[in-house]
Each structure stands twice: as structure tokens, then as C-alpha cells.
Predict the structure.
Amino acid sequence: MRVFIVGSPFTGKSTLLARLTGGKEIGTLAVKDERLDALVRVFRPRKITPLKMTLVDSDALGKLYNENKPTRIFQELVEAHVFLEVSGGLVGDFMSFTDTTLKFLTIESNVLSKRLERLRKEVAVGRADARELEVIERALAHVSEGIPLYAAGFSEDEVRILKGLGLLSIKPRVVLFNATDDGGPDEDALEEVRAQGLPHITINVLRAPEEVLNAEVSRALLSATDTITFFTPSERETRAWPLARGSTALAAAATIHNDLARGFVRVEVIPWDRLVEAGGWKEARERNWVRVEGRDYVVKDGDCLYVRAST
């Protein structure tokens, strides 16, 4: 997962990145997860691999405000899977996220208008799908009314169409209110962030304990991207993996390795806490706590998986 940290200068972006990853412009966030810790205590593996996210301290948003070359900067922002916007900090402006929304919508209005003009001509001669035209028309209507696309109620198929255009407001965005000794967001800021449907957290980036900061930010990002965590615990390696909510066991197998998906036979499944209670795979099987599922099983957050595949 590629997370772009955005926001105005002096809001605490660089401090946040440094505290979470130790990096300056880019770093890797190793997600602290008590479930993984519990599994490690049981299996005592030779290797421990937590779920990881790449965090980028991007100044692209500031350039977008101040430069006259929005296309290049827009393309840089498109690389993000999710935005983590920092407001407040030394600046004390907890409403700056509203400027970001406005900037996104202004750019998207131009992108959608141009796409709509071309689509109408292509649909008229049978060279384009009328369904895409309808989606683009609805998207432009929402943007014109100041409604970010993530809050417009598009279906998964429609979101895929819009993501193909590189639209920014369709991407998940988490607002981090960086509280200081002088205080945090007022009720106006909280009401506005709720009205925009943006997930948000309030925390003192500089003073919060590292584990608390890690947990709060990780939880918000995983929730905003609808990402769950599954585990593959063993004595060799105990690892946490990200997976889109609603994905199947076959998709989880492919996440681990494409060969597992190609040769998929079945998967053994048990919730992490039951595996910890049993004391290991062998003990859990002896208690009949391990279920055998097929490729269409929908993986749940916290599942431990043992994939069986043919070679």
C-alpha cells in the first residue's frame, strides 16, 4: 500500500513520517499488531514479517496550489493508494482539508468534462459503451455540486471506471488532526470532516507514544482502504498479509505466491485467537478447530491460513 502524506507546511507531515518510519521523504511503516505478536509467542518463528505500508511525504499538493503545471503534479498524486492529510500542527488551521477537497474537485471537473465530450461522440457512432457515458455524467454532476466522488455512492464496477481516469477524490483519504498543546480541532472542523464523509483521527504527532501513533494511523488507513489482515503462522515464518475485504481464499493464496493460486487445492482456516488458544496448528487440528475450505471461501479479518496446493 502506497500512502501519500499531504498537507500544508508546518502541519507535522515530516514529523509524522519520521516517527512512524524513521525516514525523511519516504519510509516503510511496519504495522504493529497485537494479533501477530500473540502468534509469534506461540510459534517462535525464525522470521517475523509484519504488514507494511510505504509512506511518502509528498509536497505535490502544495505545488498543486502554487504552480501552473497541474498535469505533472496530478500524475504524481495518482500514484497514491490512499491519502493521509495532516491538518493543524504549528499552523493551527484544522480546516485545511477543505482546500484539498476543492482543489481535487476543480481538477476533476476539467478531466471529466473533456472525457464526457469525447465519449458522447464515440457513443453516437457506436465506438464506446453508453454505460461509461452515464457514469461520467453522474460523476461530473456530483463534482459540480461539490461532492467528492468517494462519497457519491458509486458501485464497485463504476468505481473501476472512474479510477481508470486517475481521479483523486475517488481515492480514500484520512484526515489526521495534529493536536498540539494549544488544542485540537474545534466543532466546526469536526462537523465539516464528518459532512465530507472523511475518516479522521485526532492525535498529537510529536508527543503521542510511538505504539499509539502507529496503531491509530494504521487502523485508520486499513479501514479507509477496506483492507483486512490475514496471517500465515509457522515456525519458519509468521507473517501478516493485506487483503481487500470480501476477497476469496484463492485471492489470498495469490497474495502469498502465484504458484499457490495456480495449484490451489484447499485451505485450512482458523481465527487467530483460537490458534493461539490451541497452541499451534497440530493442537488445533486435534481439537477439530481447523476448518477446511475451498477457493471461494471469503477470508475474514484475523484468519490464519494454511494453503494446500499441488506442485
